[in-house]
Records
---
Amino acid sequence: MKHKIAVIASALFMALTITACGASEPASAPSVAETDKAAVQEKLNKQDSNTDETKADDKQSDNSAVTTQAETEAPTDSDGKNILVAYFSRADENYNVGTIDKGNTQIVAEYIASEVDADSFHIETVTPYPADYDDCCDVAKKELADKARPELNGTVDNMEQYDIVFLGYPIWWGDMPMAVYTFMDSYDFSDKVVIPFNTHEGSGESGTYSAIGSYLPNAQVLDGMAIQGKTAQEFSSDTQQSVSDWLDGLGF
Ligand SMILES: Cc1cc2nc3c(=O)[nH]c(=O)nc-3n(C[C@H](O)[C@H](O)[C@H](O)COP(=O)(O)O)c2cc1C
């Protein structure tokens, strides 16, 4: 009986908290359209031919692709690295996972980067978000209402070299964190394939994939992958498997 009450209470808590922190809707299952596969294949083929050209040119050594103030992640070998995984992710106290050292989305981003051998860029704001979950919800709510574009730390060097950009973020108040919009404002995404992915605690992708499509009309924005944050944080092999299946389906 006690157990039953606890289960009902936690379901109610989740519904209330997520509603308080944004819109709630069912998680979307990843789907891979044939057109998505074709878009990826076209860019990967281009990448292969670029690699050949680079080799024929006797290799360009300096290709330090990505830098942030907090971290420098220059690829050691630029050959074939035309894929970027850019993600926003916040550690500290979060819904359903307690206080964490590494954000849920970052965990997924790292799996993707390792599977497709991509460079990565952590989208971080100059002013960090509060470590306290409720305080962070308040700041994020205000930023959403204000359509804020918080200033970012660091930049992606040579963004033009990337053909494929995986763009990752958590759902905040039924949308992307405003910092992701700042990131999209900061670069020319023309002719790039943009592949969204996100974590959430009940809202799925919350319409953000089509929002990215509208925001970046000159990019080819594919259908993305949504994973529950708690799953990413606590069930690493399930998460790795989901990422791997999704990437396979996309033709990587
Ligand atoms: C400010 C804030 C707002 C949130 N809003 C929602 C929401 O609207 N819907 C939802 O499903 N989850 C929401 N969440 C939960 C996050 O999407 C989820 O915990 C995510 O995995 C966090 O990813 P991160 O650790 O990479 O930042 C919110 C979390 C925060 C901190």
---
Amino acid sequence: MALALIATAGALASAFEVQRDIQGPIMPNSQAAGGKGPKSILSQLYNQLSGTYEVFNGTETIWQRPPADTPLKGILFFAHSCGHAAKDLWPRTESCPHCFGLPEEMNITLHSLLRGYAVVAVSSSNKHENSCWHGLWGPRDEMLRRTNERSDWVKARAALHHLIHREGWQQVPLYALGVSSGGGFVLGLPMVMPGVFSGIASVVTPAFPTHFQEYMRHYDVDQIETAWPPTALVHMARDAVLSGVFKLNMAELQELEIPALEVPVYPQPLTPLYLAQRCVPEVDETGSMAIYAALQKGGFINAEGYLNANPRLVTAWRDMIINAGIKAAGGGELRLGPEASPISEELNLLYASNELTSEALTDILDFFEKALAATPVEDRAKGITGEYLEWV
Ligand SMILES: *[C@@H]1O[C@H](CO)[C@@H](O)[C@H](O)[C@H]1NC(C)=O
Ligand SMILES: *[C@@H]1O[C@H](CO)[C@@H](O)[C@H](O)[C@H]1NC(C)=O
């Protein structure tokens, strides 16, 4: 008991110390998120989210396209982080009974759809090792040498190929966005699938230094025809160890004249309505204000709403919510488990430590669209073409 207390105090103290170095600007709540009001686009339109669950040769794939009369602007392939899966991007519906609906994921799906993008999420095959993706690290030759028919990238490629051909999306630009383990995965994809992706976005995982140079070396000497795709890197202020690697990545991309976007994410304050704007349908306005009050009373947030400690390490926030007797909207239990809780996800994001964020999506899609428009047609990525047609 005493030891646990000391450990907690220690974690709190070190959290305070780090805080001094990571302070960034306060980002006002976006219009999409509801500004100062309780209703976000997500909280009003999440009913439009309806994933189609399919299994292609053992690979779990969930997807949705914008309404049939909307021309498709692009396809966004999403790669989850460890401990997560494709089911997090959609709420539970008849067409996806196992969907789990986490807020940042669902907001990415919704805003991609609203902009005319189809969203395709695939689950990694590795159920035993916490659902992390098979790493795509190292030089291209080595990645290819390590590949077999069970490799995640081969399975993801087969699923994408099957779906894109069946739905007739071959002419539509294909982009990839991944978070954490999924970020490393999507940063590896152009190495093994050159000329396929029109843009890559990684949230919280940088590429190995010299990764882009390595690709461009093959571009120069091998048969690779398409330059490394435009790349967006989203990193969080508290992932301090990684920030140096992100800097190296950005310098490398700039030197190679590859269009690059850097999006830093800073700690933000919790507001009384913050969770109602995001954790739909689980947290309503009353619940959101009650949680805010409970965390304030328990000292988990300071007077301005900033988190006083890392919610992954100091989990007292759970007891504060439970002890305050707060229920989900409609009366059920709130989901509070690690990596399986809307509230937990939002607290991690507010703390700006290793979490998915949908905040950067607008910037990322703007960046992809601008980069595509600036690329001469003959130099653009070709998407998934007919070369893997053996898989039906
Ligand atoms: C959802 O994503 C959009 C687009 O990036 C962003 O503007 C908004 O703040 C996000 N969150 C909510 C709750 O709308
Ligand atoms: C289905 O997956 C298995 C193993 O993952 C692989 O050996 C096989 O070639 C795949 N089938 C097709 C038609 O691609």
